[in-house]
Amino acid sequence: MRFISKRSGNLVLCAALTMSASGALLAQPQAASETDINVYGQKTEGPEIKGFISARTGDKLQVTAADGSRTVVAFDEATRIKASSGLFGSRAKPTSESLLNGLPVTVKTMQTEDGGLLARQITFKNNDLKTASMIRNGTAQGFEEQTAATEALRGRMADIDQYNVKSTTNVNFDTGKWELSAQAKQELCAAAASAEGMDNALLLVVGYTDSTGSEEFNQVLSERRAGRVVNYLQQACRWKPYRMLTPTGMAMADPLADNETPQGKAQNRRVAVNVLVSKGLDGL
Asked: Is 230 exposed, middle or buried (0-12, 13-18, 19+ CB in 10 A)?
């Protein structure tokens, strides 16, 4: 019996020591793990944002994501700006002057007390910066240039819903042909002259056909018509290439009139020259 009692006493003693040690450990401050939210003064870690710079005003950037959503992020002198090696080498570092419109970026943010986002790190690729720099120099525009101008040089059709269509000029063609008539040439240069006076205006050229012929033939025909219009706008009407979105052929899609009548088919054999101007900055 004494043996059992002695063992019980040891168990009680061990339990007491264990509880004491556990209490001491709990009383000590716990180190934050790498997955804990980092605290930067009065700022906590915010979301990581990926997209391209679609606008900039002062110390704020608007970043447009692939799904079209826009996020406004502020930056300051503490923001780290990083680029992949190659363009800057070891002798120079990218600065806020590198944050050009159209530049794809990844932004690590912090949430501020007022609910806004502050960039703690902005990264991009040097090849993307080179393209954005070419756009900025080619268009002679500063940081206020809109998404439209940057997307024009890249020949991308993304985010087309961010543009306002200011006007549309339709020029028509004979069946199975892509030659421009004298009237069409006159109308094209008139459209270019009108668009020239609009800030950041771009031309989007889309070719169409009527329902005559196969889908394969009409696709090629619509592309040839669009290409012929683009060439004439640039060569004869002096419209600058960097202000032209990539032309496209839509074959029989989006008819203007009924393809069951000769008059309707004549209206559908066309190229639409759309004058686009980027919408105003939202949230800036």
From this structure: buried
Annotated domain spans of the chain? 40-145, 160-278
pTM score: 0.46
How buried is residue 12: exposed, middle or buried, by Cβ count under 10 Å (0-12/13-18/19+)?
exposed
Query: Would the pLDDT of 142 be above 50?
Result: no
**Which tokens sit at 66?**
């692939």
Residue type at 65? Answer: A
Across residues 108-124, what is the average pLDDT?
91
Please answer whether residues 69 and 161 qualify as being in contact, where contact means their C-beta atoms are separated by less than 8 angstroms. no
- Looking at CATH, the fold of the domain delimited by 160-278 is given as 60s Ribosomal Protein L30; Chain: A; (3.30.1330)
Where residue 180 falls (left for φ over 0; alpha for ψ -120 to 50; beta otherwise) is beta
The one-character DSSP state at 198 is: S
**Tens digit of each residue's pLDDT (9 = 90 or more) over 204-238:** 999 999 999 998 899 999 999 999 999 999 999 99
Q: How many residues does the chain have?
A: 284
CATH code at 40-145: 2.40.50.320
Is residue 107 helix, strand or coil? strand
- If pLDDT is split at 50, 70 and 90, which confidence band does 2 have? very low
